[in-house]
Design goal:
The protein is an all-alpha fold. 82% of the residues lie in helices and 0% in strands. The protein is built from 9 helices and no strands. Helix 3 packs parallel to helix 6. It is globular, with a radius of gyration of 18 Å.
Length: 211
């Protein structure tokens, strides 16, 4: 019963955490639009694989995670650059009469490995899960046992996949509805990436001022 509780808790938190617009779910949606559902699903699996590895590491090395603020700050700035580049290439695609693909998301690299790479340089998930895991430990919902960790991580993986699937299949639905307006889709996705980059930059600059 306790294992089921931590399983569904991890799945619920992960599912809700995936729903706000972010780098990975919007990228999954765009890959679904440009390269198909199968490619987007591979991307999602690669991204969630890194996420659960991060969660597993944070569970057994919380002190190490807490002390590596400079490393994560560097990764955050690198993530902003990637998001800004995604926005720029979407705007270029939107302005192109030939409906050019996003050159970052449409490279020859397999989308599974693209998901692994983009998730690996996205550090926001580490403090997110660090905070939730700490809270669950405090409430004794999560216990320092291998079976609890495994149930928790499996739930997280399923929740992330479910959340990303909404964007993947939702992207296909948007394309089917707006099939004659590919440029509009590129403008919208580019705008989402641009706003995300600006918000992340603003938050990081606030952190720098506080320190």
């Amino acid at each position: 019963m306790k294992l089921l509780r931590i399983f569904f808790t991890g799945m619920f938190i992960s599912f809700l955490g995936t729903l706000p617009l972010g780098t990975l779910n919007v990228a999954a949606m765009q890959i679904s639009v440009s390269d198909g559902i199968k490619a987007a699903l591979y991307f999602s699996v690669g991204a969630l694989l890194v996420e659960i590895i991060y969660v597993r590491i944070s569970l057994v090395a919380m002190d190490w995670v807490r002390k590596r603020k400079k490393l994560f700050r560097t990764l955050e700035w690198f993530t902003v650059l990637i998001i800004a580049a995604l926005a720029v290439f979407n705007f270029i695609a939107a302005a192109s009469p030939h409906h050019a693909k996003n050159v970052i998301l449409s490279q020859t690299i397999h989308t599974f490995w693209l998901g692994v790479a983009m998730s690996a340089i996205s550090p926001a998930q580490i403090p997110f899960w660090f905070g939730w895991s700490t809270a669950l430990f405090t409430k004794k919902i999560l216990q320092p046992r291998a079976d609890f960790y495994n149930a928790y991580i499996i739930g997280i993986g399923i929740g992330t996949f479910m959340g990303n699937s909404i964007f993947i299949f939702g992207g296909q639905l948007i394309v089917n509805k707006l099939n004659a307006h590919q440029n509009m889709i590129s403008w919208i996705i580019g705008g989402i990436f641009a706003i995300t980059a600006l918000i992340m930059t603003w938050r990081m600059l606030r952190k720098v001022k506080r320190t």
